[in-house]
Amino acid sequence: MNPVDLWNRAYLKKNAVPSFNFSGADVALTIARTVKRLGYYCLISTSERELNFQTPSLVVSIAKALQESGYPVFLNLDHGKSSEIIRRAIDLGFDCIHFDGSDLSLEENITRTKEIVEICRPRGISVEGEVGKIGGSSTLQDESGKTSELTKPEEAIRFAKETQVDILACSFGSAHGLSKEPEILDISILEEIRKHVDVPFVLHGGSGLPQTEIKKAISAGVVKINFNTELRMAWTEGIKEYLNQNSQDIVPVNILTHADLKVEKVVEEKVRMCINSE
Ligand code: 13P
Fold first, then answer.
1. pLDDT digits (tens), the chain, 278 positions
2. Where are the beta strands (DSSP E) in 48-197?
3. How far apart are CA 146 and CA 181, in angstroms?
4. Do residues 271 and 42 touch, judged by C-beta distance below 8 A?
5. 174, 185, 192, 244 — which has fewest CB within 10 A?
6. For ligand 1, what atom is nearest to the CA of residue 204?
7. CATH assignment of 3-230?
């Protein structure tokens, strides 16, 4: 399947495609096995940091090996900001690119995003643009939402029309990371944008959002939902738990197997949240 077709398919079926970040091959394989077992598909994603840690060529090799072995995964660059990393990801054959120009002026964001769309479209690579600031980071946060700047619908409408991005990340109430305060989505922002332009949306900061909010987002046209923090937590807790119970064990396969089982549970829960249950 072409990655761009993913969005139409999800939109028509009132589903969303989950995107899961990974920092190592064991987690990528766990994600791939879980979505395959559930008969679904997903994006496996790396931020610039997760990509550079593993090295871009290794990340691509992991994704290609999974795809060639029949796992339904697409490789996504998450929050790519620098031109170098975007160029590298395109050349290496990423399926989807998220260009995060949210630190730029709207004008500059439009110009840079348009250039990326022009390069990616003929190659069948999906481009995600971003308008508004989605705060926080994929860690345990105290008040992550406070650094967000909600998307102004008029800016998003102009951005989507001029750039022709495949999907659009908006800031509408979620933030990266897990905070104690509940996150409430402001769906009216998406509804206003959709009155003027037919662009599918991306929900960042999926960790911690309850099923009710996810469902509201999907009904408003969200086709991709990003999850990272809860996978990180599960993996780390798995490592700690295993070593607490088996302090003499130094065999990575034993330790990682335990951590990956915890990740599998989170992936399964999030996939089920993204599939329309009606
Ligand atoms: P969480 O870390 O809140 O799950 O968000 C992940 C994300 O949006 C990556 O872009």
1. 788 899 999 999 999 999 999 999 999 999 999 999 999 999 999 999 999 999 999 999 999 999 999 999 999 999 999 999 999 999 999 999 999 999 999 999 999 999 999 999 999 999 999 999 999 999 998 765 567 899 999 999 999 999 999 999 999 999 999 988 888 999 999 999 999 999 999 999 999 999 999 999 999 999 999 999 999 999 999 999 999 999 999 999 999 999 999 999 999 999 999 997 54
2. 73-80, 96-99, 126-131, 136-140, 167-170, 176-178
3. 11
4. yes
5. 244
6. 8
7. 3.20.20.70
- Site to probe by mutation for ligand 1, drawn from 44, 176, 231, 236 as the one with most ligand atoms within 8 Å of Cβ, is 176
Task: Tell me the domain boundaries of the chain.
Answer: 3-230
pTM for this prediction: 0.97
User: Could you tell me how far CA 229 lies from the centroid of its own chain?
Assistant: 11
Q: Residue 109 Cα, ligand 1 centroid: separation in angstroms?
A: 21
